[in-house]
Amino acid sequence: MAVHFHEEDLPAGVLVNDRPLAVDTETMGLVTHRDRLCVVQLSDGTGDEHLVRFAPGSTYDAPNLKAVLGDPARLKIFHFARFDLAAIQHYLGVMAAPVFCTKIASRLTRTYTDRHGLKNLVEELLGETISKQQQSSDWGGPVLSEAQRDYAASDVRYLHALRDELAARLAREGRSALAQACFDFLPARALLDLAGWGEADIFSHV
Ligand code: MN
């Protein structure tokens, strides 16, 4: 297992298979139009993680990364895909679908709790511990610390295993089709966020 660090794009051919891809992003904050995309993390599930870092003023001209994210034949696994899809769409100009979102799968199956954070899922379902200490750190600096790199990589390290477990629970509870319908809607949900309907619920009566 190793963490590979890249600047501005993913090198060609570093993903060793065409399996589902675990994806996460780190940004300057939660306001997508204001807070630039700093890091995209990827794992193909074989044990290595790849971090692609974008410098201030980046043109986000990353053809290899855009090709894998935009590949309609490759499933992308996220935790809270809604945010990452919007950031990737806004800065890289691609919709990273089709999607499996572990947070939605957790909400649809783990109805006995309101703890749906990645750390909670990794602990309960996989018995592993990840640190969230670097979550709100400065991802825009010239050098990413060892702790930041480890944190960024750990955010994609467990998504394949979580998907396997959550897919089994969705099947057990008879909610696989409902989950799939929610995943299929996620690109539109991200586009609504970018277009200004972030907080409004367009399905609401009032
Ligand atoms: Mn993250």
Describe this structure in words.
- The chain is α/β, with parallel strands linked by helices and 206 residues long.
- It has one domain: Nucleotidyltransferase, domain 5 (2-Layer Sandwich), CATH 3.30.420.10.
- It has seven helices and six strands, in the order E-E-E-E-H-E-H-E-H-H-H-H-H.
- The protein has helices spanning 63-69, 81-92, 102-109, 118-126, 146-157, 159-172, 176-195, and strands at residues 3-7, 21-27, 37-43, 49-53, 76-78, 99-101.
- A hairpin with a 5-residue loop joins strand 3 and strand 4.
- The termini are far apart.
- Manganese (II) ion is lined by residues 24, 26, 155.
- The CATH class label is Alpha Beta
Number of helices: 7
Q: Could you name the CATH homologous superfamily? A: Ribonuclease H-like superfamily/Ribonuclease H
Structural class: alpha/beta
Bound molecules: manganese (II) ion
**What topology, given as strand order, has the largest sheet?**
1-4-3-2-5-6
